[in-house]
Amino acid sequence: MGCFEQVTPEGPETNQHDEQRSIRLHAFSDLSHVPAATFIYLLKDCYGYGTNKATSKFKILMQLVKVALHNGPQPGPFTYVVQCMYIVPLLGKTYSEGFSHMLTSSLRHLKSVESVQKDFLEAKHLAAQLVLDILDSVVPHENRILIKLLETFEIELRDMAHALYGSELYDDLMKAREHLRQQVKRCMESESNAVAVALITRFSIQCCDESFIIKLIENNQLEIAEECATFMGKEMISLVIQKYLDTKMLKSANKLVKEHELTEDFPDVSYLYKESLVKKLAEKGCWDIAETRAKKETKLLEYLVYLAMEAGYMEKVDELCQRYSLESYVDSLVPEKVFCVSDYLDLKKLDVEEIVWVDEINGLLSATSNIEACKIIGMDCEWRPNFEKNTKPSKVSIIQIASDKVAFIFDLIKLYEDDPKTLDSCLRRIMCSSKILKLGYDIQCDLHQLTQSYGELDCFQSYEMLLDMQKLFKGVTGGLSGLSKEILGAGLNKSRRNSNWEQRPLTQNQKEYAALDAVVLVHIFHEHMRRQAQFGVSEGSKVEWKSHVVSRVNSMRRPLRF
């Protein structure tokens, strides 16, 4: 079998086993005298001998089947596969759907081969009969396989008429359509909606109304709802678009409007979709991308300015106004109706005393000594976002380490360039201290990023007393901002999350944003412990958070090479 590991038992039966394996190999190389049933059971046997994972084995088998179908299956490859499809369900569910998909997919490349066209036309009638047998539950195939058969064999109404009545005369075509209409109704009653729509669209069966379309949308079967609506005409397509608009599914609505050239009927959909896209990007902190998407339309740029004002991102407001001359728009806004900055937590509300920027070695040594005097610290890091596909993430630019009152922001890029050995030594003193509880949020992600950025340093390879707050508060959604809102009563303004962290100097707003992400972790932990103590469960709480503390000691110290 080549692609699979062949297991040959020891002892007197070895030759017999090898002979059986050679017969199987010969069976794949020449199918002219191999019945469909034998072929299917040989496939099963090959799969059973395979040592790869299931997906890999199916891919390898598909290649074998493609080759085998060129090697004289009688009376032809298409008829042969239909015969196989009657047998596959006997193998049970473990094999049935996968093998059926494999067999039908293997026929695609044969459709253009001239020598098998006669077999393809004859097999269409047999495939139609198979479809009818599946609909009548005589042959137990999954709905997806039935639909695939309709597509692969390009089954038409005349094929169904031939299978039902042995004739393709007009009266028999009408009787076949009526028969299929009854099948569609049964499918709709049993909620086999994908099959119902496949039959409706393929055989032009008029037997559903807008209630069926609405039901498909409510069941989130959007693709087949669109397919059915397209078959039924403009009125139903418009119904789907309106339903999408009602449920704020603007991307899907915009796609349908474009595909069916309905801009005159829905003139606002394109703008509403672009507006929603700009808002999503802004909410993720992707302001530069949002600006790129909005560039051609003044109205969208004004909306982006509004979003920046709403987020309290005033430097972005100023930047956009200067670039696109939007000062008059800003002047027209009523500030009280825009600003909601007070809804967010900030450093003043947490009584933070100082943010210390560390970008030289003396400051690094001093900051390390100060941090070593703390019992609990919060940690976070930032890097410039990179939205290009298939490119490496940007290097981590800063790491923030904070107590409840003071936040240190380390310029990793400069410190690494100036004195990597001292940087490594200082951060190891912090990371490997068993006396300091270090808090983070999804901290393994940050450590991975730090390791990728500064692989020569040992300080991110080992750590002690590390507590991931995301794991401690598993049930809380919304990221660190959501956790802050849950525990401290106010969320965090994340509008600067994806700003340029490599620019120097950082703006004061960037520094405050970075500091807050580290400081807030300490306050969340203290408030959680205070609540636990208040309700008399301090011991349980201690056990709870301690069970999430992790350490990783890498005893293999590597010599630094710079």
Put simply, the count of helices is 28
Q: Please indicate the percent range of residues in DSSP E strands (runs of 2 or more).
A: 5-15%
If you compute it from the alpha carbons, what radius of gyration comes out, rounded to the nearest whole angstrom? 33 Å
Described by strand count, sense and barrel closure, the largest sheet is: 7 strands, mixed
Principal-axes geometry comes out as elongated
Instruction: Estimate the helix proportion, in percent.
Output: 55-70%
Q: Whole-Å distance between the termini? A: 51 Å
Spatial sequence of strands, sheet with the most strands: 1-4-3-2-5-6-7
**Number of E-state strands:** 7
The stretches of 5 or more residues where confidence is low (pLDDT under 50) are: 1-26
What structural category characterises the helix and strand content?
alpha/beta
Mean pLDDT: 88
Q: Provide the number of structural domains.
A: 3
In summary, what is this structure?
The protein has 562 residues and is of the alpha/beta class. It has helices at 14-29, 36-49, 54-68, 77-87, 93-105, 117-135, 143-152, 157-165, 170-189, 193-202, 210-218, 222-232, 234-246, 250-259, 269-283, 287-294, 298-310, 314-324, 327-332, 335-338, 361-372, 412-418, 420-431, 443-453, 469-472, 479-488, 508-534, 538-546; strands at 354-358, 376-383, 396-402, 406-411, 437-440, 463-468, 549-552. The protein folds into three domains: 19-234; 268-333; 347-552, Ribonuclease H-like superfamily/Ribonuclease H (Nucleotidyltransferase, domain 5, 2-Layer Sandwich), CATH 3.30.420.10.
